[in-house]
Amino acid sequence: MINVLTELFREAKHTVVLTGAGMSTESGLPDFRSAIDGMWNDVDPLQFASRDAMQFERDLFVRFYKQRIQKLKGARPHAGYYHLAEWERTGEVDFILTQNVDGFHQLAGSRNVAEMHGTLCDIYCDECGDKASSDGYLNDEITCVCGGFKRPGVVLFGEPLPLSAIHQAKMETKKADLFIVLGSSLQVSPANVFPMEAKRNGAKLVIVNQEATEYDSYADLVINDKIGHVLDELVQSNNYKS
Ligand code: APR
């Protein structure tokens, strides 16, 4: 498997990586739909992570996001993030499209990153847009001086995705001749559209995911293994710098 991935990696001229929550589970952050401990397994995401929840279930909403921000402050990018950042520096990886909101790709040094679902690292007022601190948010400073409600910079269900990030994703997907999915169930659009878009443009599609996805049959290579292990293997067995 790794040898096939190495060949694809070596031959590619423009490699785009799409990451999902599975990229951060080895950093201690839970994903959403893993059979074992996915966050959405026993809750309805619309109850916590939607615009309606923010407006009509404010206490639940604040508690949910305070928990996620707290967890994020205690976590760090694992080695796989640093491999991706090094491969950006050496030209093996051209762009990262992420559904994640933890800012770990940038923290590990990747610069060509499109955050399609926003970021948990920013807090701002939903009314006037004033920026606020996450420490303040953790101390229940959730009302802006303008009277508006402070909220994390994540895209909530029912909100539009950041146009610039989606435009970048479309442009990069068009250029890709190798498209690698790392740790996503590919159940949420439009992120789950890009792998097939790349495939239609003639790119090779690789899916690295612990569980099967509905796009596996279209992929040129599927590796059902831990991302950290796969990326470490790619470094070791192909003397890729990292
Ligand atoms: N290695 C490989 N795969 C993993 C690992 C790992 N260490 N840990 C988890 N996975 C896999 C799981 O098997 C799962 O299929 O990663 C996948 C993560 O899928 P989801 O939890 O659905 O996360 P994601 O695809 O990023 O969700 C997309 O849904 O709720 C929204 O906005 C949220 O961005 C999120 C979007």
TrEMBL record:
The active site is at H117. Keywords: Hydrolase, Metal-binding, NAD, Transferase, Zinc. Residues 1-242 form the Deacetylase sirtuin-type domain. It is an enzyme of class 2 (transferase). Gene3D superfamilies: SIR2/SIRT2 'Small Domain, TPP-binding domain. Zn(2+) binds at C125, C128, C144, C146. It comes from Guptibacillus hwajinpoensis. GO terms for molecular function: hydrolase activity. This is protein acetyllysine N-acetyltransferase. Its EC number is 2.3.1.286.
